[in-house]
Amino acid sequence: MELVFKNFQFLLTGAYYTLLLTVVPMFFGLIIGIIVAIARLKGNALVRNLAKGYVSLIRGTPILVQIFIVYYGLPDFGITLGPLTAAFISLSINVGAYLSETFRGAILSVPNGQSEAAFSLGLTPWQTMRRVVLPQAARVAIPPMGNTFIGMLKETSLVSIVTVTELLRSAQLLVAQYYVAMPFFVAIALMYWVMSVSFSFILNRIEARLAKAY
Questions:
Q1: Is the pTM of this model over 0.85?
Q2: Cβ neighbours around 130 below 10 Å, total
Q3: Burial class (CB in 10 A: 0-12, 13-18, 19+), 106
Q4: Helices (H), 2-59
Q5: Contact 113, 46 (CB under 8 A)
Q6: Which among 177, 101, 179 has a CA at the least distance from the CA of 140?
Q7: Contact of 115 with 134, CB cutoff 8 Å
Q8: Could you tell me which of 170, 127, 186, 180 has the C-alpha nearest to residue 15?
């Protein structure tokens, strides 16, 4: 384990990029997920079908293929992206599709009486969605969203294939340098575990606070 301690700073840098590749796509994925969920529930036939097609396409194809399309495929059309940018875009699009289903189910779980009461008070459909429905849906969405978040944390390892130096890529570079594998892979496994447990704790606290609010 001496080699691990010697290169711990390098592994921490990889962990930083892993966190970055989790938080940024989750942020944009939340925005995409909410928009797509509302489009499927409130949009006209064309909008609903487009949103449904997006979800079906993303959920029906491997995330690794999606990363390859963004990084290696787009240059065929004159669009060249850096590895980190391509990773952000592909992961955001992927997680947005899964989160849209989470939010759609959460919105449907809010009783219709809540919306009817808001309309009777003079709120517009947008105000009702923003002030009444979404806050209650968030409480229902937190547990599955937490699972998606932790899953995204682990799936960031896939972007090492496009040379993003996240945690797994950092370990691979060290293995290639020292010709020793086990200490580095055990170290990053422990680092993934610590990050997953930490995020689970934070999300459980958020869930508990929302439960008290409702």
A1: yes
A2: 12
A3: buried
A4: 2-6, 8-42, 45-59
A5: no
A6: 101
A7: no
A8: 170
